[in-house]
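Q: What structure does this chain adopt?
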Amino acid sequence: MNIKDFTKHTLQLIVSMGINYPILREEYAVLTKPLLIITGTGHMQTVIGVLSGKNIHYLNERLSIKKNMQVLRDFNSEFIIYPYAETAECNRFLEVIEGIVRTGSKDSNNSNYFNALPVVVAENIPFGCNTDLFFIICLDGQAGGISFDRYCVVPPEGELAVVFDKFNSCTADTCQDNNDEKAFLAAASFLYPFFRDNNSMDEFRDMLQCAKKLTELDENSHNINDTGSLFISGLYKWQENTGFCDIYMLPDLEMSVLKRIDSVICFNSDYVYIKEPFFREISAQFLNIFSEPVLKKALKDDGILCTDNSNTYTVKMCYHNIAGELAYERMLRFSRDRLEKTGEPGFVEICLSSKENRGKGNIARLPQHGYKEGGRLNGTR
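A:
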């Protein structure tokens, strides 16, 4: 199953959770935490459109909890979207949403009763809130161009018993206390009649695999102890396996380097700079365990990935082009000190040594002075 198919199945499962929410809730087959969907930069509206179709309803942090609860009560079998922005007010409202879902009731006479699924949609993982309180799905910018009939998740009249039978058979081997996996398998079961009638049972089996993988990825995203150490060890192992040495000292970059900027590494005395596509290649060994946004957030929290406190993980890397002009390129920025392993040569030093041994450059030792953002020279490390 390729990444595009995985993303499509993920969106179908989420749509099934929303449209079939009243039934799933009655069967205790709902997530134990509110859903947080990470779309990737620039993809929020695309994902909201796929989820909600033409009828989009929103939660609003500027309304009272009572009025937001009324929105959740007024709509049936719908998504109620909260489009997250990186502000303190939005972070506080995420806690409100978590409380609403945690205390939700099946009793229609209870003030905490609601009939629609609240979903938080964000371009990046929120920096300022406790994401352990959410079920995280990362789409990594892959939702563009995906479309499907939203009502394929609604079984034909009289086939609800077939859906329940399929759900029971799918969850027979599922751990009894894994409610989140059950919720996704239940959502997948509502698509069984559609795939059966279209002779697409292989696709249905892919859907079940997707349901289980989403649960696994979420569990891993909340169990990220020692992720920094694992990444550093993996980075050194990647360099050893590939013999990578295409590394260049700032500030002066030749045109031949800029043409290959997506597959080279730049450095100064304090930082190592890597383009996001190359980071994905280097991190491929981890991306079956953690989604990319979760990995980036863990590295940021560990002081390895250094951001500029904006809502993106990249920063502007300063360099001098061939004309000697100051220019910029958006890159991921890593701390050189934090990338080092105690008692061993640093990552940059290993790459430079490999470069010297291969005769692919004339950088044989570290310079006495490096280059820092803003076009200023800085002293030795």
